[in-house]
Amino acid sequence: MDHQNLFFIKFKAILPLLIINTIFLATFLPEAQSADPKFDACKPQTCGNGTSISYPFWIPQIQQSYCGYPGFEVNCTKEDALIQISGYEYLIRNISYTDYSLMVAEDLQNDCHIPLRNVTLSGSPFRLGQSSTGYLNFYYNCTKPIPSRYQYYPINCSSIDTGNQSFALFEHDLGLPDLNASLETCISIVTAPVVKYPGMMSYVQLEEVGYGGIMEVGFQLEWNESVSGSCCECQGSGGRCGFDQNEFWCFCSDQPRRGNCNSGPKIIVGKEIVKALFLVGYAIVLGTIIWYCRKIYLNNRRKAQVVQDFLEAYGSPAAKKFSYSDIKKMTNSLREKLGQGGYGTVFKGKLEDGHLVAVKVLNDSKGNGGNGGEFINEVATISKTSHVNIVSLLGFCFDGSKRALIYEFMPNGSLEKLIHNMEPAETRPQLEWSRLYKIAVGIARGLEYLHRGCSTRILHFDIKPHNILLDEDFCPKISDFGLAKLCPSRKDSIVSMTGARGTAGYIAPEVFFRTFGGVSHKSDVYSYGMMVLEMVGGRRNIDDNQIDDTGEIYFANWIYKCIGQGEHLIPNEVQMEEHEKISKKMVLVGMWCIQVDPVNRPSMSKAVEMLEGKLESLPIPPTPFLSSSSRFTC
């Protein structure tokens, strides 16, 4: 019996009950609750260039003030989303609701495209991002020239030309000998915050894109997590967040609540329904229900068939199909959670034969492109792979709106947990450098396979320690192909992308700023290099102990400084000569991989060759970017 016939049989069985229930409602219930107007009013909006606007932001032109938090008003135009801060409007580049931050840029309308005022945040709910903000200082109409031995960027513009000099300096150059004498002769000074990213804080980049290009990227602002209140909990229960009468509210489909849509005090909002309307219209209502249910059923069946056809055509022959009840059974009702990602949650499970598995349960398919874009993308990429350093797909679940992927279980967890172990020293496992070296080589071979060994080149776009899993022998396995991109031909070197992909700290510069070059397999090489350096240093990309007053520091600076001084790169308790050679080899390969210009980075095949070759044959790479490295200490 097919699904359609089964649907109509079940519907005919409940049709009399629906008719009786409708008459009962029309006769005995004089009023019924309607959808809460605040719930409808505060639905997420799209503004200008496609920016998604939701709480704590709100749009005064089309929304009420209770849809957002004071100070988060957004002005929408046809092209841009604008926000007013301390009396001035800024362009919104993007908003990260999970990180409580947004990227903004000044709307420089003057012919010079230079800032004419300092950024003021007093009285606003925002603050500058501490670890991501650098400063570019503009000095106008200076009577005394800058000494020729210093680097600076001259500003030549007719609107400010008074016969004197105007120029731009990075903040890290301030305080240099006899420089202040020149700066004190300037009539006006403007300090502009800019995003601090490898290569962005250098005069080389300033020469290439100009100060206008750097200012166009903008800078990061953050807001306090308390502003968002219980918004995540509210949205998780199906509600929409708001702020009314000086307190946070969760607007649910039926009525507002102070907590979430599953608990909290209720405010009854209802409209009286005329009995006669039910009596006259119940047949129409029933007909509409029948039509709508059938439409939903056929639509869901069509979507399911699209994915089913894809799985039959491209799915791995070794991957077994499971029902959602099978998933609940093997994970003991999703009891043991292993991790959380942007598209789903990973649980520990056990197959009937006793084999342990990791079950990735994806979020609702509506959040995955209707047909389950994340699900299809991951199956499409991983089904084309077969390599010892690529995680194996054992099965999948496609059951209605439920999507899940079943992978082999990795008992040693992720590489991130290994290199950032925060247990007490007496119980902390010793990191054997030969093991770290083998892990680095294994990951490189896995990436080499993705880039060259498959029939279709695969770009991962999210290489980081969290996505490297370790089996019982600490053999690394590349996982999480949700952001991966398939290239039609291995000859293609540049791929097109509609937006940035990856995790901050591991994303190649060209993914954000295309003046660095085209996005290609070299973008994976950059992520790999940052990860290898993190493995060697045992620290994240920014170490709080190495941040100066300006907040200007990158992990690569620390590594490069240590190479120049011949300092040890491994923890103090491990100073054996052989281990030092391994760490230095990994560092040199990592530094080559994170070169700002993609052309200067090696391919993954070359990276494997460098790792397996002799240390003496590896040349010292150039510094990946220019900065005030004299400030760094090992």
Description:
The chain is an alpha+beta fold. The strands form eight sheets. Strands 4-5-6-7-13-8 form a six-stranded antiparallel β-sheet, covered by helices on one side. A six-stranded mixed β-sheet has the order 18-22-23-21-20-19. It has a four-stranded antiparallel β-sheet with strand order 10-11-9-12, covered by helices on one side. The radius of gyration is 29 Å and the shape is flat.
Secondary-structure topology with pairs:
Elements: H1 3-28, E1 31-32, H2 37-41, E2 45-47, E3 51-53, E4 74-76, E5 81-85, E6 88-96, E7 101-106, E8 126-128, E9 133-142, E10 153-154, E11 165-170, H3 180-183, E12 186-195, H4 203-217, E13 219-223, H5 225-228, H6 231-236, E14 240-244, E15 247-251, E16 256-257, E17 271-272, H7 275-314, E18 320-322, H8 324-330, E19 337-340, E20 344-350, E21 356-362, H9 373-382, E22 393-399, E23 402-408, H10 415-419, H11 433-453, E24 457-459, E25 468-470, E26 476-478, E27 485-487, H12 509-512, H13 522-537, H14 555-565, H15 577-593, H16 604-612
Parallel strand pairs: 18-22
Antiparallel strand pairs: 1-17, 2-3, 4-5, 5-6, 6-7, 7-13, 8-13, 9-11, 9-12, 10-11, 14-15, 15-16, 19-20, 20-21, 21-23, 22-23, 24-27, 25-26
Short description:
With 634 residues, this protein is of the alpha+beta class. It is built from 16 helices and 27 strands.
